[in-house]
Write a structure and sequence with these properties.
single chain; alpha/beta; Rossmann fold; 7-stranded parallel sheet; two-stranded antiparallel ribbon; 12 helices; 35% helix; 15% strand
């Protein structure tokens, strides 16, 4: 039996015995805690840490880009903590995809297939969600693709962000809005000093440039429309609203609270199990191993701020919680990056991962000319460490262990959702 398929009320999913307590939370072997949600008639995931006291319990989260690699992991984690996730994204960008493999459409409140460039559809989905928190992940995320489709990259990464902020300004205002960008937003001079949040923005390629533009959009909307020093304005008439708790309903719009709290988050090169994207190092390695092919790498000596996907997601979630509970002092730009001793070359990553996942055909350096990619890029996450209390739990070697465990478990037939839940529980259990 599929542990995650809708089941009759009061029936344990494995034993099929009656569960008297309607609130009982069971744990299928190797699986996730869950029970049938009576209101929506679909199962809810729970982590092994009971979410009764969790900040995220019953929070309504509007998540763009939920079908991607990071979005899928975040959807699983938030849902396991009792949040109600309303997803808005294009169809999963890869086949296979962790979203489809985990059957996440069954667990989230809404799975809306749409483009952030479509303002009307995006607005409708946002209003319908009545979200407490909005997390914007939808993007054209690949540097190499941005050379091929630069216009689409700018339309998605810049105007998609504008569309979301404009929908928030005019139609529905959550309490918290977090825009996820990238470590590549900085004007990279390829020095060994880690970039801080106050360093100049830049971007050599269309992807990096478009994400830097998204950062500027975030700052402009926060300063122009949502700053506490400004009077709360009705989104259409732009007339002052004296009571900041006033919940307005613009014509054709939805109720919302004035002046949402807005931040952006810049993370390093995220890695993790279940990433099947093209032209990314770890997925290329895993794909080559599965297909019994040699791994080809382009820039063996390039150094990136590698970090497990759960590291960056934990930072996003902590930042949202701080903004929600403690207010505007946590608004702004934030770096979430690994410690300095985890700054390794592409070659080091490849050799280390090939030692952990066997059998494999080894690797070779690809010949020929390649598109420009930064050779050295480092983030300085001191602000997040000092002000949020965030820190890395899994160093790079442990992160690669988790990727190899995920991959080996997947190749052995274990369900991707079970593997993700297990690793989320392990991460939450680490200090």
């Amino acid at each position: 039996m599929n542990n995650y398929a809708p089941i009759p009320l009061y029936i344990h999913p494995d034993t099929q015995t009656t569960v008297k307590d309607r609130s009982y939370r069971f744990a299928p072997p190797g699986g996730a805690f869950g029970y049938l949600d009576q209101s929506s008639n679909h199962p809810i995931l729970y982590s092994s840490n009971p979410p009764l006291l969790s900040f995220w319990r019953n929070k309504r989260v509007f998540l763009t880009g939920h079908t991607g690699f990071k979005g899928s992991w975040l959807s699983i984690w938030l849902t396991s903590l009792g949040a109600k996730v309303y997803g808005y994204a294009l169809k999963p960008p890869t086949k296979p995809s962790i979203f489809e493999q985990s059957k996440l459409a069954k667990f989230i409140e809404a799975h809306d297939i749409g483009d952030v460039r479509n303002f009307e559809r995006l607005t409708k989905a946002l209003k319908k969600s009545k979200a407490d928190i909005v997390i914007h992940m939808a993007a054209q995320p690949l540097v190499r693709d941005s050379y091929i489709i630069p216009r689409e990259t700018y339309e998605t990464n810049v105007m998609g962000t504008v569309n979301l902020f404009e929908a928030v300004r005019r139609y529905y205002q959550p309490k918290v809005l977090l825009n996820i960008t990238t470590d590549k937003v900085y004007e990279n001079k390829e020095t060994k000093r880690g970039y801080t949040e106050t360093d100049p923005l830049g971007g050599y390629d269309p992807y990096s440039s478009s994400k830097a533009c998204s950062e500027l959009v975030t700052s402009a909307y926060r300063n122009s429309f949502f700053h506490s020093s400004h009077p709360a304005l009705h989104p259409d008439t732009q007339t002052p609203v004296k009571d900041r708790s006033y919940r307005f309903a613009p014509p054709g719009g939805a109720f919302g609270c004035s002046n949402p709290l807005i931040s952006s988050a810049r993370a390093g090169n995220v890695i993790g199990g279940g990433d099947w994207a093209k032209d990314r190092l770890v997925p290329d390695i895993v794909r080559a191993i599965i297909n019994k092919q040699k791994v080809y790498i382009r820039n063996p000596n390039s150094i990136r701020p590698w970090q497990h996907v759960l590291e960056s997601l934990s930072g996003y979630m902590l930042l949202c919680e701080k903004m929600y509970l403690e207010g505007e002092k946590y608004c702004g730009a934030w770096n979430f990056g690994p410690d300095e001793n985890d700054l390794k070359t592409v070659k080091w990553i490849v050799e280390r991962l090939l030692l952990k996942i066997k059998p494999n055909k080894g690797y070779e350096i690809a010949k020929g000319r390649h598109l420009h990619e930064a050779k050295f890029l480092v983030l300085n996450p001191d602000k997040a460490k000092k002000k949020l209390g965030w820190h890395s739990k899994w160093n790079l070697d442990k992160s690669l262990d988790k990727i190899s465990q995920w991959t080996n478990s997947y190749l052995s037939g274990e369900k991707p959702l079970d593997i993700c839940i297990k690793q989320i529980n392990e991460y939450m259990g680490n200090k």
